[in-house]
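Reader question, answered in our methods column.
A reader sent in the components of a multi-part assembly and asked whether the whole thing could be modeled at once rather than chain by chain. We filled in our standard form and ran it. Here is what they sent:
COMPLEX SIZE: two components
ENTRIES:
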Amino acid sequence: MMLELIGISVLWLFLFGYIIVGSIDYGAGFFNAYSIITGKEHILSKIIQRYLSPVWEVTNVFFVFFFVGIVGFFPQTAYYFGTVFLVPGSIALILLGVRGAYYAFETYGSRGHKGYAFMYGLSGLLFPASLSIVLTISEGGFVYIEEGNPKLDYQALFASPLTWAIVVLSIIAVLYISAVFLTWYANKTGDQTATALFRKYALIWAIPLILTASGIVYELSSHNPPHYERIFNLWWMFAISLILWIVTVWLIWHKKRYDVAVWLMIFQFAFAFFGYGAAHYPYLLYPYLTINEGFTNQAMAISLIVAFILGLSLLLPSLYLIFKLFLFNEDYVRGRKEKE
Amino acid sequence: MLFEDPVFASRMLTLLTLTFHIIYATIGVGVPLMIMIAQWIGIRKNDMHYILMARRWARGFVVTVAVGVVTGTIIGLQLSLLWPNFMELAGNIIALPLFMEVFAFFFEAIFLGIYVYTWDRFDDQRKHFLLLIPVALGATASAFFITVVNSFMNAPAGFDFVDGQLVHANPIAAMFTAAMPTKVSHVIVTAYMASAFLLAAIAAFKLWKGSSHEYHKKSLYLMMKVGFIFSVAAALIGDFSGKYVAEYQPEKLAAFEWHFETEEGAPLLLYGALDEENQETKYAIHIPFALSILAHGNPMAEVTGLNEFPQEETPPLVVHYFFDTMVTIGVFMMALSFIYWFGIKLGWSFVRASWYRLLIVIGGPLTFLAIEAGWWTAEVGRQPWILRGIMTVDQAATSSDYVGWMFILFLILYIVLGAGTVFVLRRIFKNNPIEKDLEKYNKGGDPA
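And here is the structure of the entire assembly that came back:
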């Protein structure tokens, strides 16, 4: 029992990490493309490139970590989700392929190429949207068992307002998270024009974010009442999340303490995300697969947790190093060269 | 519709993805070591040519890494999408090395980012060299862990089946299977070898096109030396692999060699064509006793023939061609690099001749063909099993009907990625020839 909880918490934490760093990445790619197309390239691109270049690969590993980890800790997810997720999963992979390739081609080949930047921005926005379908599927109601094999009911999936609400939320969340982060980052570089622009984007996306998030909770009340009820029991987590959102927007509105705003934004999503996850417990795929049924054997669980701790002890110092060298390095951020 | 059978379609899509990914993965494992060697020699000899070599290789390397990361992510997820039943079972036993592979990859990704973006931040090249150690270590470690997983599929171990239930799972025992030592070392060493010959081919191409710059000559000589050393290692380990296969997967070896009847003092067949119905080989070169030597190290040893195995458990006989391709190219490249090394030392003029350089140019892609052929040998030779002796590919594949369509989508993606890589790499190096980089370097600027 303990091990299952550790397993799912670790995975949920990494998925959360991916959502934050991934959103910054995907949103930045979109803003980059948008700025090139609207001729504001000179304002934004430099800042985005400087942040993105050293960390994009690290971002991707968070994603790999999650799906390797979930198959490791909960092998049965491979069976259920693997079978039904073939088409949406493949489309997500193709978007990822387009994105990764155009990133490389633009950054290392020909900087400022409109076509590359456009493909990069668009695929980055659609990728999380196509992945978020898995959240809809896990709510139940779209998977049926035929001849002993799970099948996905595409018609029900695409006709459901829940699907589209989650897709829209994922896109808006990407743009909001990214804009808040980049406001802070641009401010650090001392670039006032870019800061003002990102601040504007952050404020634009703040309202739709809360509207769609509430819409999903409303959808759930009719789609999956037991889940809705558990969300309701955890109302305080979502209330905290809402307050954090208000304070974040207030800070950005008054152009105060962008660093605090970024942290509040992260915690806002953390509360909502972990609240949602806790409410989903104990189901991985409602109603077929629970955490307890799908868990791996004792020996594997223990060795995975040991590997995880050893891996983290290698990873955390390295992550600290990359942050120190790039993100939190005054000279690098401001685009100055520094000799050590 | 195309590929109506999901099992066949899943096999084809996995073949497609892996065949494409292996090109980038091999470069990803081998090139960091070459960059490290060049940087090290540059520091030791205080020769900026080698430092620039490391720098220029790294610049091209990041493009291949980007595509390699993408295709690697694709195959990682495709395993669950296309082989859900296999992953459900395997997840219970073999998840540990998969998990560790991600950490190795994480580690490499972090330090590669730092290495590439701190070129102009360190005056001391030795500091910069230190960053390359985790990159090369991480690259090799991920090859190690992922090949451990593949070894497990060839020689499952570390668990028991009782009444169809998996019990006594032992993740550590599952990692150290009988197939692991030869497989892992062969994969790593051939990746080093292929990367060295690829970089040698680039240098040879420049010289063949008429450049006579010292830089290209140094690069060619260094990579031919390194390539030779690793090709010898590859051949030695390849021989051990043969002995392993003879012992543990005799049907695979018999299929490699079209060896139908069990006999002592078995001959080795080189090339040839097979008449499948009559089990007759035509045009093949017979080397007496060589198969017995390859399999057991004894010319009179008995080698089990294919006829001893039930028909539905024998691999497709096409693997013979793959096997011959791999071995022939391996031997050819070993000879080519050995003659070059000695030729330069002893001052033979023909190794500097245009035709010899052309052979080296062709050698680069050929080595990659050998890598592909080797993987096809190993993987097709494992048919019909996905987990040898436990689960066939038919039992493992998805039941989804849309795999054929996905195949087409991914094929288009890989064509775009492959063409894009070639296009971008050519552009980068066309716009930045070594002369221009050297000039920038001498002026104290960043040759990027």
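What stands out: Chain B touches chain A through 76 residues (CB under 8 Å). Residues 71 and 77 of chain B are 10 Å apart (CA to CA).
Send us your own complexes using the same form.
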